[in-house]
Structure formats: structure tokens, C-alpha cells
Predict the 3D structure of the following.
Amino acid sequence: MNIIEVKGLSFEYRCFDAEESEKQEKSSQSGQPDENVKTVPVLHNIDLEITEGQFVAILGHNGSGKSTLAKHFNGILTPTSGTVTVDGMDVSDDSTLRRLRQTVGMVFQNPDNQIVATIVEEDVAFALENLGVPPAEIRIRIDAALESVGMTKFAKHAPHQLSGGQKQRVAIAGIIAMNPKCIVLDEPTAMLDPKGRSEVVKTVKKLNAQGATVVYITHYMEEAALAERVIVMDNGKIIMDGTPKSVFREVNRLKEIGLDVPQVTELAHRLRESGMDFPDDVIGEEECAELIVKLMK
Amino acid sequence: METKVIESKNLTYKYSVGTPFEVTAVNNISFTVEKGNFIGIIGHTGSGKSTLMQHLNGLLKQTSGEVWINGRDIRGKGVNIREVRFEVGLVFQYSEHQLFEETVFKDIAFGPRNMGLSDKQIEERVRRAAKFMGVHDSWLERSPFDLSGGQKRRVALAGVIAMEPQILILDEPAAGLDPRGRDKVLEFISDYHKKAGITVILVSHSMEDIVKYAGRVLVLNKGGIFCYEDTEKVFTRADEITEIGLGVPQITRLTERLRSMGVDLGNDVYTVERATERILALISKKAGDSCRE
């Protein structure tokens, strides 16, 4: 079953020079178009279906539209034209917006922008309190959420005393606590060290194994290689969509649009170019090592 | 003789002293940096990287120990900390969040203006810094908020460079940028380092980036120094580095795996180029051997 359905989605940003954009927008509708208002098309006629329980990675250079697309999944942005339906709800429909936001949890790149409370466990409880979850239930959910991101011993700490990676895990715990069906993560590991990154990735994989649909935006090719499906965006369009193996084998095409491939894929590519008999769809360290050993025989 | 531009002597910093949350973030760290060096600092989150770098221009005051910049104790008598801050430029993570002016020009000019320079000098510095960071002339009169993420980052960097610090410290300057944006920003920094002859300290989680640009690496672990060595040497200790929660490049992990499977590419492989060379060399050697047999 599809949890996310995107049909003919186009989106354009309206840019204004001044803060009082609303007024200017109105004045521009009567008479001459205001110079201060310009539209910037970001997404062009996107069709996409994501099956429930899938782990989808989205790649694309900065400005390719991947974050804009992701922000449609819980109605932070709504389509300029076309439709986005999540779990049967049209994201443009205000009457189901609250339920939509409980269905799709978003985690952003910078944890400092996501933490609101002064104590870690209170921050994790924030959404639950807003949803009117009974206190006893909140307690259980906070403990479980902090446990799954490995932050239990920091429950009573102040977020500003945590490192960036720790804060990001608190932000993820806040989302997990809502038990959303779908989790959208927009470069959640961009600020983390390798250990923090692998902890977040493991947490995300675990949540996915427990049934959550995951949409994972990243610039780390090694992380994308762990997903079951990789979508590549460029100039507001989906240009590639398939298994990690089928996407990463197109080394030159990815490099042309400013992306990269995992180092082992790059190595395989170079060995092939040097005339070696080597497959072009290597994405894992283990398989790469075995193939090299075979080559030596 | 090389000149020491940074000397950290037994530097210790504790957060929240006297509360139950007291944490020693930096523990008795001593190291020196010589003029013109490009140093990489790596360490897991919470290892004290950011705390350490904030001492180097006096944003934080150490609990004990000393910081010497250009041969003087920055907390010593008669030292104006304001002057130290002009000598040591600090670029924070997500520096684009610090943009605030109406135009790119004004934003880059903010630092030089605070230094009390004349309008003519300011203009010169803005243009020079903009050029170094690949900020186009046509952007200068635009609002910085109309630029893309990578472009904003470069404007923010230009704002620090315009103060022409002798020491430039960058905390994750490429975090959150796509591969092309990352390469661009780091290339601009590396280019500036070479042309201006300044000292650069690059704090990064990305081993791949450190390997590419830094000559020496300071590895921090739990607030202390794990090692401070030439980049080439650091990765010969891949096992230990992985143990303290840091990653080595994927290609280095692959090399380790191959060694355990009986294929030895050497213990200094941290780029795809070198791995390719070594594999091809091994294969042709093998082919040669079997010919002779």
C-alpha cells in the first residue's frame, strides 16, 4: 500500500524583499506587478509513490528541491499545483492537518532549531503534551524514545549542555515519542561525528524495521547505500529512482550533477576503467573486498 | 626557525563548575601550531573540539592553563583581548546563520568597520575577501538572504577573512553542503591559505576532507589529546582511531578488511587514487611473477 502519493506536484517559492510580504502580495495583485515579488519555481511536475514501510533515501545537490519536496509530506508546504496525499490525507486540506502532522514526523538538520524545552525529557514530552496524552503514558513513551536513541542518562540534563550529536538524538526522540507512521529526516547527520552518525543511522534502520516508513535526505552516499530505494533529484525533478546498486552504478552521471558515490563504488569504477574485469554496481565494503581478493587469484 | 603562532599550555576548561553538571570539556591540553601550518582537528562529538577552539581567541576563559598567541599570553597583563580577536578569525558551524546585514557588501564590511578602518580600506578588503571566497561582484549589492546555502556560507567566510586574521579557525565549514559545495568551500580556503600564507585550523568530522587539506592532525578524545601527528601517520593507526569513535575513510576500512583477507595494500591508503594504484600494481606484479614461472 502507498503511504505517500505525489501526483503532478509543482511548487514555486514567492520571494519578497521586505518582511511585510503579505501586504505587498496584495498590492501586486491590483495593477502593476510589484518588482519586489518574484516567483522561483522549485519543483516541476513530480510523480512519486512511496510504499508503506519503505526506506527511501533522497539525494541531490543543494537547491535541487529535495527539502522542498520533503516539506510537502507533512504539509509545511503545500503544492502550487498537483496533489500530495499521505495515508489518505490531502496535505492541502487544513481539516486533517493535525492528524497529518502526527502521521509524519520531521527531523531537521540543525538540532538547535528543534529543541524547545530546558530539560531533555521535557523536550521529548513536548509534542505528547500538546496531543493530550495521559501523563503515565507520556512517561513510558519518553523513556522508550530516549532509550532507543541512547540518551537515557541525559534525561534530566539541559539541552544546551549537550553536544550537537546528542541534541540531534534528543530531537529524534521527540519525534519517535509520537509514534508516527512515517519519519522524514532532512540531513539529520550533517552535524554529527562518524559515531553519532552511525548511531542515528542505526536508530533509523531500527525504526524502519519496526514498520515506520522512512524518507531520508542525505549528502552521505554511504548512508544512502543502506536504503532500499534511492531517489536522485536535480533541478526540481526526479532524475533517477531505483535500488542503490542501480543508481550508484551511474558514477559519471552522478558526478555531472555535483553528487558523489561511495568510495568503494568509485574504486570499482576506476578499476573497470583500467581494464579490470570488475562489476559496476559495487556499493558495499564486504562485496568489494571479496571481488578484489578474487581479482588477485 | 619556525615561529610558534599558537601555544596551548596545560589548558583545562570545566563547564558548570560547582554544580552537579560539572564537566571537564578540555583536560590539560598542550600543543603548538607553527606559522603557515594547515592543521586538522578531529574528535567525536563532545571531545572538546569546539570548546578548545573558543579558547584560541579568548571567547572562553580557561579554568587553568595558558593560551599564547603570537608569543604572548592572551590573558596576560596589558593584553587587549579585542586585538587578539582580530588576529584570530573564528568561523563557527553554520556561519551563514550569522549573516544579518541588508547587503552582502555591508555584511562582509562589518568586521573591518569594527576595526576602525577607513571607507577606502574597507572597500578594498571587502573586494579582496569576496574574490578569495568566490563571491561574485554582482552579489555584493544583493541581500545575503537571496543566496543559496553554499553561497551564504562563502559570504560569511569572506566576512571573517576581510579582517585579514593571521590565524583562521574554522569549525566544520563544509557541514551540510552537498559534495560540490563542500569541495568548493574547502578549495577556496586552501587557496587562501596558500596565497595569504596564514595559519589555518580546520575542525571537521570528515576524515576525507582532513586528509585532503591538512598537513598535521590533532586528534582529540574525551577532552584530551589522543595524538598530534602528520596526516600520513595518523591513518596508520586506523584501528585505534575507530576505537575512539572516529571514522576512517571507507577506503581505509576496505584496505583493513583486505589485509585480514591476505591482500596487503599497505597501511597508508586513505584515498581512492592510491588504492587503485596499489591494486593495479599488485595485479601486474602477480602477472609478472606467473610469467616467470
